Amino acid sequence: VSPEHLAGHALDLADELSAADLDHLDGCAHCRDELHALREVADLGRQPGTSRVPLAPPSDIWTRITTELAADSPATTPSDVPSAGPSAGSSAGTASPSTGPAPAPSPTSTPVPRHAAGAVPDAAASGDSRADGPDGRPADLRGYRARRSPRRLALLAAAVGLVVGVAGTLGVARALRPAPSVPNAGPPVEVLARTTLTALPGQTGTGSAELLRTSTATELRVRVDVAQNANRYHELWLINTDGKRMYSLGTLPASGSADYPLPPALAEQLQGYTIVDVSIEPYDGNSEHSHHSLVRGTLP
Amino acid sequence: VHPALAPRVLSAEIQQLPHPRGTILRLAFWEGHTYSQIAERLDLPLGTVKSHARRALLHLRGRLEEVTSWPT
Predict the structure, then answer these.
(1) Quick count: other Cβ atoms within 10 Å of Cβ A93?
(2) Which of A187, A207, A282, A294 is the least buried, fewest Cβ under 10 Å from its Cβ?
(3) % helix / strand / coil in chain B, to the nearest 5?
(4) Least CA distance to A195: which residue of chain B?
(5) How far apart, in whole angstroms, are the C-alpha atoms of residue A4 and residue A7?
(6) B69: closest CA of chain A, how far (Å)
(7) Using the beta-carbon criterion (under 8 Å), do B58 and A38 form an inter-chain contact?
(8) Between chains, do B61 and A40 touch, taking CB under 8 Å as contact?
């Protein structure tokens, strides 16, 4: 079976396979696999869930994030700092509400965080047997480290962990606090659909179009980059997918950027007028489309 | 990646497909066009449309596999 036939059948079930093709499929695992793979994607593509509208996150996403963070943040207010013991060092960066009062640090019983112990692996073995020199300085470095380092390191690690954890959490909380107001801050503009405008064969140019709903109107916001021509101008069209009907939304300024209000009848439903088209028009006084399009895109 | 995201990934991918592949898939998926309608509208031979559709579908499948193999 030709790969095109398989793809045809996968995408368009009306595009039936011949009896001979079906026979072949029965005996050919390779073709069966390909058909299966194509079918899977095609079925998924046809699902209503495969929406045509670009993916806007749910509007309450920031509220949910900040609510979740707010639930955690009281555990790391500065008043809690003194109660966090050495174990806080192992949970740097996270709020740690379960951290209890610090165990009294004693040379024999202080729990040593793993990474502190790891830094001085010989600490326990070397014990406390070495005496300081007469000037109070350690008899040798090894002994010094053995006696003092685990505890100091543990406390240091705890302190660093706390600072990082508290600062991090406070910083994140602070950064997020104004966020809930952001979605309401701008003018209420809803993007209903968008598309990129691409050059038609043999033409050059790029652009984008967004279908926007403001509180007062439905507008098409267009950004187009096409070559300028002193003897021509550009015009923006909404062409029906039936390929027969179209509306002119107006001329395109040389900047290539403009917002066009839609005719009221299309404001609610595009009714098939989904092809955004930029034409180049001669100054001939003829209001019809020149049949010379430069870039085009289809609103989903 | 959660399976529920697959359709969204797919729709994003479909929208990014260049012409004519993207157009072909959009017409087929979202406008319910048959191949012959698509071929007529785009003024392309039927075989060319199908060949584009096949490549587009395989591309999408590859992208879906990439995405679904990400750890969640």
Answers:
(1) 13
(2) A187
(3) 75, 0, 25
(4) B15
(5) 5
(6) 16
(7) yes
(8) yes
Cβ-based neighbours of A286, under 8 Å, separated by 6 or more:
none
- Is A15 in Cβ contact with B25 (below 8 Å)? no
Lowest mean pLDDT among A63-72, A216-225, A244-253: A63-72
Q: What is the DSSP letter of A287?
A: -
- The answer to whether A293 faces chain B, any CB pair under 8 Å, is no
Phi, psi values for residue A16, rounded to 5°: -75, 150
Q: Which residues of A170-194 are buried (b: 16+ CB within 10 A; e: fewer)?
A: eeebeeeeeeeeeeeeeeeeeebbb
According to the model, what pLDDT value does residue A250 have?
92
Ranked by mean pLDDT, the top range of A155-164, A182-191, A287-296, B18-27 is A287-296
Band of residue A14 on the pLDDT scale cut at 50, 70, 90:
low
pLDDT tens, residue by residue, A154-164: 665 565 555 55
What is the total residue count of chain A? 300
pTM over 0.80: no
Average pLDDT over residues A39-61: 67
- Cβ-based contacts of A42 with chain B (< 8 Å): 29, 57
Contact A8 B30 (CB under 8 A): no
The answer to whether A215 faces chain B, any CB pair under 8 Å, is no
> How far apart, in whole angstroms, are the C-alpha atoms of residue B12 and residue A49?
12
Chains A–B, number of C-beta pairs less than 8 Å apart: 87
